[in-house]
Amino acid sequence: MLTKRFFKTKDEAEVTFSFSHPQAKTVALVGDFNGWQPEPMKFVKKECAFKLKHRLPTDKDYHFRYLIDGEVWDNDHQADDYVPNGFGEDNSVVSTCRA
């Protein structure tokens, strides 16, 4: 799940990436905004979800995926869009365009 917060005085949005996977021991966020390098997400016990916040420039689309236990790729099931990634699967897309 994606949550976005826009700032009046900055051209950036704070995006909270939240992902639930019952059997996962670890989840990493991987996207074009972090050089496709796995970034560990923190498990929030009371929400039973892995979370990570990122500030991203506004008015752009960013591709990302979740890497579960260092082996399995998954998408955000509530992403703004999905696009083919060249590996026979889709990437999730988060848009920072103001509504």
UniProtKB/TrEMBL annotation:
Q: Which domain of life is it from?
A: Bacteria
Task: Extract the CDD domains matched here.
Answer: E_set_Isoamylase_like_N (cd07184)
Fetch the Pfam families from UniProt. AMPK1_CBM
Domain AMP-activated protein kinase glycogen-binding, which positions?
Answer: 15-78
How is this protein named in the record?
AMP-activated protein kinase glycogen-binding domain-containing protein
Organism listed in the record: Pseudoalteromonas peptidolytica F12-50-A1
Name the lineage.
Bacteria, Pseudomonadati, Pseudomonadota, Gammaproteobacteria, Alteromonadales
